[in-house]
Design a protein that fits this description.
This protein has about 190 residues and is of the alpha/beta class. It has eight helices and seven strands. The longest helix is centred in the N-terminal third of the chain and has 14 residues.
Length: about 190
């Protein structure tokens, strides 16, 4: 099995108006950063043309896979990326900032297990977080925060940045950054 840098997990439901642009932006964003990727778009029971739109895009975006299932969990089961990026179609269509690439790089280098950016974009190491993602409820209002809390409780190395990421000079880092490092022998525990 070929391992990729990042698997983008993209659940959708009745998003035909933006799911195509979301996938195009995601592919371009990570390709331009020189990263190998896959986009796993999960149809959660769309009643519109979201799925046919995505199937038409497959010739343009060979990294795109379309499946049916229940949210991030369904996509995590199939992910081949060393890092997982959990993103909504709305967030992806807006375009991702460079902090998303930085987050993936931090996870790939082993600096972190999980990183939450802007409360709605979660990057995590597939080796330590796939089980957490697969066990997550398919519909939870703040699923990214819930997964972050679960990672902390398991002793994973976690960072969370609020809307103003990264921290600005002059503010105490403890006010902006919540970092949890395993308290055991300095090694991370796998989930």
């Amino acid at each position: 099995m070929e391992f990729l840098d990042v698997s983008v997990l993209l659940p959708f439901r009745d998003h035909e108006h933006l799911v195509g642009s979301a996938c195009r932006r995601l592919a371009e964003h990570f390709r331009s950063a020189g990263m190998t990727l896959e986009i796993i778009a999960v149809d959660q029971g769309s009643g519109d043309n979201s799925e046919p739109v995505l199937h038409l895009l497959r010739s343009e975006i060979p990294e795109l896979r379309v499946i049916s299932g229940r949210g991030y969990a369904a996509a995590a089961r199939l992910a081949r990326g060393q890092a997982l990026l959990l993103v909504s179609p709305e967030r992806a269509a807006e375009g991702l900032s460079d902090s998303s690439v930085t987050g993936v790089q931090e996870v790939l280098s082993g600096q972190l297990d999980m990183k939450l950016l802007d409360d709605k974009l979660l990057v995590c190491a597939s080796s330590s977080c796939t089980a957490l993602v697969m066990a997550a409820p398919s519909r939870h209002r703040n699923i990214e925060r819930k997964l972050l809390q679960n990672g902390r409780s398991r002793g994973l190395s976690v960072r969370s940045y609020g809307p103003e990421a990264p921290p600005s000079p002059g503010r105490r880092i403890s006010q902006v950054l919540a970092a949890v490092v395993p308290r055991s022998s300095g090694q991370r525990r796998a989930s």
